[in-house]
Design brief:
single chain
């Protein structure tokens, strides 16, 4: 679990549980598996956000804004907006300030990170990051 966090933090807790369970050959993470995985990283820094609980590695401080990490071109690595911490989404906004003048800045940001269908919940999440950076 710590290796995953060191590479991908901040990471939503449910995503961490899924990845660790799959790495150990479990198709899904039931209550006991989830409990054991979260116990293994107990005490790591975390933030509670509208999209869920995000876990940070012990090595990296919890910051209000961090650089956005682009996914590779592989569709399997594409992250949902709801899987990205607000700190990273704020970094995305800071790196793309030009979209703030457009009629639909949330849609423009989504396009910049290769998201073609913008759900209402993802739009709201991007709007939250835009509001924090405006």
């Amino acid at each position: 679990a710590m290796q995953v966090l060191e590479k991908q933090a901040p990471l939503r807790a449910d995503s961490l549980v899924q990845q660790v369970a799959r790495a150990h050959g479990f198709g899904r993470a039931g209550g006991k598996i989830r409990e054991q995985i979260l116990l293994a990283i107990k005490g790591c820094p975390e933030t509670d956000e509208a999209a869920g609980r995000f876990l940070w590695s012990w090595e990296s401080p919890v910051l209000p804004v961090i650089p956005y990490r682009h996914s590779t071109d592989d569709a399997s690595t594409q992250r949902s907006v709801l899987q990205i911490s607000i700190a990273e989404l704020r970094g995305l906004v800071q790196a793309n300030k030009d979209v703030l003048t457009l009629s639909d800045p949330a849609l423009a940001l989504a396009r910049r990170i290769n998201i073609n269908r913008l759900s209402q919940s993802a739009r709201e999440r991007l709007a939250e990051a835009i509001d924090l950076e405006s």
